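Thread amino acids onto this structure.
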């Protein structure tokens, strides 16, 4: 099976749960004892880790800093059998990291340090990374990297899947339009769908079936499930996909990346569009039940057992 290549920000995440809403001049008490624990993540790592565990070789392209070894990130990648040929180390700076803060009311605050992934440290992606690759997945990342990744996918005739995040520094209007026009598969959530349509002055995302390369569009709606649109015999088919309910929802962080990974697993293994979406929903079901974006990724066998159980 040919490889998948994934771009975007890496992030060494620390999850901080506080006792009340953050306020100027007020000290908030941290409730979780593991607040300094590093959860390895960022969209390309979340997706690549999941796909590799499910048997689909996936190569993340990203930059790391001086703390690549000391944080345990290098060992994590090696132990997880994630290819590292797309990783570039930048000296004199740390790997990008993030503090994910949540208060009792469920409000979320994100504090991000771009570090080695800053545009200031841009490096060209080695052409060898694109050998035997059939699908590129672009997620939120530095603009220079996004431009490079899109151009390399075009140069090597590699199909593109676009994982939307409405960060205008990563996806300014002209680049957003160019990337979406080239994309074969488009993923976004309900809010991102509305923002893309507004930003690009469209009636709906389905217009990309006519003006671009789009063959599949997937929109997620949280607990309301998801919808997929695809072309079949010249017609646009619309299907609603239910969520796979989780016994305990502990942390929804990374559930969108899990959906993409589950879908791509199905897509690469010749499942139908609808079943690929169901596999995305099934993988998300596992992720939300533990803290961290990839802590609870199942084996291929367990994923398929749950998928088939739901289909009975």
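Threaded sequence (312 positions):
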């Amino acid at each position: 099976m040919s490889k998948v290549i994934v771009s975007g920000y890496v992030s060494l995440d620390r999850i901080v749960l506080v006792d009340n809403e953050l306020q100027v001049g007020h000290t908030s008490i941290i409730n979780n004892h593991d607040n300094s624990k590093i959860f390895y993540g960022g969209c390309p790592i979340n997706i690549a880790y999941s796909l590799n565990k499910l048997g689909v070789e996936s190569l993340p392209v990203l930059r790391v800093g001086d703390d690549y070894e000391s944080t345990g990130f290098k060992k994590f990648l090696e132990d997880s059998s994630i290819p590292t040929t797309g990783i570039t180390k930048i000296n004199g700076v740390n790997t990008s990291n993030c503090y994910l803060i949540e208060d009792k009311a469920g409000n979320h605050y994100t504090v991000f340090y771009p570090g080695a992934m800053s545009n200031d440290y841009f490096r060209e992606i080695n052409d060898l990374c694109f050998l035997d690759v059939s699908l590129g997945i672009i997620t939120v990342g530095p603009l220079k990297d996004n431009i490079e990744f899109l151009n390399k996918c075009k140069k090597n005739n590699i199909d593109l899947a676009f994982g939307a995040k409405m960060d205008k520094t990563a996806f300014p209007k002209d680049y957003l339009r160019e990337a979406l026009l080239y994309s074969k598969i488009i993923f976004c959530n309900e809010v991102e769908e509305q923002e893309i349509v507004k930003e690009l002055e469209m009636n709906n995302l389905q217009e990309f079936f006519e003006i671009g390369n789009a063959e599949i569009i997937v929109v997620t709606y949280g607990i309301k499930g998801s919808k997929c649109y695809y072309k079949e015999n010249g017609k646009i088919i619309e299907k609603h996909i239910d969520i796979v309910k989780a016994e305990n929802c502990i942390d929804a962080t990374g559930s969108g990346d899990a959906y993409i990974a589950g879908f791509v697993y199905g897509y690469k293994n010749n499942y139908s569009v609808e079943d690929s979406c169901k596999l995305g929903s099934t993988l998300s079901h596992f992720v939300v039940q533990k803290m961290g974006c990839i802590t609870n990724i199942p084996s291929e066998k367990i994923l398929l057992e749950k998928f088939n159980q739901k289909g009975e």
